[in-house]
Specification:
single chain, about 525 residues, mainly alpha, about 60% helix, disordered N terminus
């Protein structure tokens, strides 16, 4: 396996050599023995430090694992709540690979929130391990572990690791495909070519947008192997066959996603600050600068002399191509896809780029110091509680609204928080629609009237039809809505001010509950 030696040969002047000339062969052997023991001790301490840094970064994942499921996680549950036979039909645009995994988990172990999140935890641990194997293609052990620690430390990774959604599996597929590509290019074997084709197609089984990494793969392959295209051409065909076969079930949904792309946009135009935070999570840049300054003072900074071919270009392309595509599309088109969880596709490459920088610290002490600094940084960012929030949840708002509505059999007017709800008719039974997926996991006993996310013609028509019977009957009702639907609450309040008195019950994790009492 190619690794960077991480050592810089230092030449000595003749006078220096004379000054340390041993008096006898036994003295020389003794000095070599002491030097070897010192080196081994230094390596051991460095290895312990980097492993602790990795452990600290992974431990930060679990601070919110016991929190209530947030909105998008309830979509995952809704997709499996109709049983195995309904999974395919409830997927919408996504491919159901993750849903079948989640359904099996639910069938075997139940629907507790922690249980539903465990597949993602295991998948992200697998992604960390595969990233370590990728890093070992280029770096020494300590640098490879630092790469995985930097990856695991990212807030985006920490969120996806305990998220009951397919993102951890998607990044695991990305890392596996990257590893197979590197090994195929190194050995040019049929097995690795075929496995690369399978892994590359597998990315689309968990998230379509992660497929942008294929652009990076193509560039890496062209830049690294264009002179050897005759030798690699037959294996390229072998890789293409399983890839295209596995893409057949995905292709139609992928085309439809592009055709309806604007109806799924829910983010604004990204800023350069968001991009820089993705490339430099936390205060890692400051920590590295401080350690690199000490190494420079000690004259222990140098590009490794035996750098494996393509280490730098591979790391940079894996990071900058997918992130650049997502950022560019979001800035220059109305399709804003530079969403935190989508950026996960470029984070393995970002971590490898940090590995490139750390490998230039030609001093074990400096690497160990950087690892210790990471541990301190990780520890400061961890809240030692198992009740931290993991995304906003509808649980508490629905509980409060249902408890107050039940005595009077009052209906709940619930605004969907999915942008798709602005473009489709409202379902007759909201509990069977993904637009109100939160009701599949956090059930209410009160009747529910569905409303779109935005205040549009559909929302106004639905409310007016409801008020036509509610006002004569002096019927109390509640409105439950996330922040994006505030205009709907204000419009209902204005429309009903002569017939109803509005009472704000409360705001629960950004979800408002408003009661309308007949005058």
């Amino acid at each position: 396996m190619n690794v960077w030696s991480g050592s810089l040969a230092m030449s000595a002047t003749p006078s220096t050599q004379c000054a340390v000339e041993p008096d006898s062969p036994s003295d020389a052997g003794s000095q070599r023995g002491r030097a070897k023991r010192t080196s081994l001790r230094s390596d051991s301490l460095t290895n312990i430090a980097v492993v602790l840094a990795l452990a600290a970064s992974v431990s930060g994942w679990f601070s919110a694992i016991r929190s209530a499921l947030w909105l998008d996680e309830t979509v995952s549950y809704w997709q499996i709540s109709g049983g195995f036979s309904q999974i395919w039909h409830r997927q919408g645009l996504s491919f159901p690979a993750y849903s079948y995994i989640l359904w099996l988990t639910d069938s075997l172990f139940g629907s507790n929130g922690i249980v539903l999140r465990m597949p993602s935890v295991l998948a992200m641990l697998g992604a960390v391990y595969v990233l370590y194997l990728i890093a070992r293609e280029f770096f020494e052990f300590d640098v490879a572990v630092i790469v995985t620690a930097v990856f695991a430390f990212s807030p985006i990774v920490a969120f996806a690791a305990i998220d009951a959604r397919p993102y951890a599996f998607a990044v695991l597929a990305v890392n596996w495909a990257t590893l197979m590509l590197l090994r195929w290019m190194r050995a040019n074997s049929i097995r690795h070519a075929a496995l690369f084709g399978v892994a590359a197609a597998g990315i689309f089984y968990f998230h379509y947008l992660f497929g942008v990494i294929l652009v990076a793969y193509a560039l890496i392959f062209l830049l690294m192997k264009w002179r050897e295209y005759r030798a690699f051409a037959p294996k390229l065909v072998i890789a293409a066959i399983p890839f295209f076969l596995m893409m057949l079930p995905v292709f139609s949904r992928l085309v439809y996603l592009f055709q309806t792309s604007q109806s799924h946009v829910f983010e604004g135009v990204p800023s350069t600050v968001e991009l820089s935070r993705t490339l430099m999570p936390g205060n890692i840049a400051l920590l590295f600068a401080e350690v690199a300054f000490l190494a420079a003072v000690a004259r222990k900074v140098a590009v490794p002399s035996n750098e494996p071919a393509g280490a730098g270009i591979t790391s940079l392309l894996l990071a900058m191509v997918p992130l650049g595509v997502l950022y560019g599309v979001s800035v220059w088109t109305p399709i804003h896809v530079f969403v935190e969880r989508y950026r996960l596709v470029g984070l393995p490459g970002v971590a490898l780029c940090w590995g490139l920088l750390v490998s230039c610290l030609n001093w074990k002490f400096a690497r160990a110091l950087f690892a210790v600094a990471l541990i301190v940084s990780f520890s400061n960012g961890i809240h030692f509680t198992l009740w931290e929030s993991h995304g906003y949840t509808w649980k508490y708002a629905l509980e409060a609204a249902d408890a107050r509505a039940l005595p009077d059999h009052a209906p709940l007017l619930i605004c969907s928080d999915f942008p798709e709800s602005n473009f489709v008719p409202m379902p007759a039974d909201p509990k069977t629609s993904f637009l109100f997926a939160q009701l599949s996991y956090y059930k209410v006993k009160s009747p529910v009237m569905p409303l779109p996310r935005a205040l549009n013609a559909t929302a106004e028509s639905q409310v007016k039809r409801f008020l036509a019977t509610a006002i004569p009957a002096h019927q109390k009702f509640f409105v439950v809505a996330f922040g994006a639907s505030t205009k709907t609450i204000n419009w209902i309040t204005t429309t009903t001010e002569s017939s109803y008195r509005m009472v704000r019950v409360g705001e629960y994790d950004q979800v408002s509950v408003v009661e309308y009492v007949p005058r």
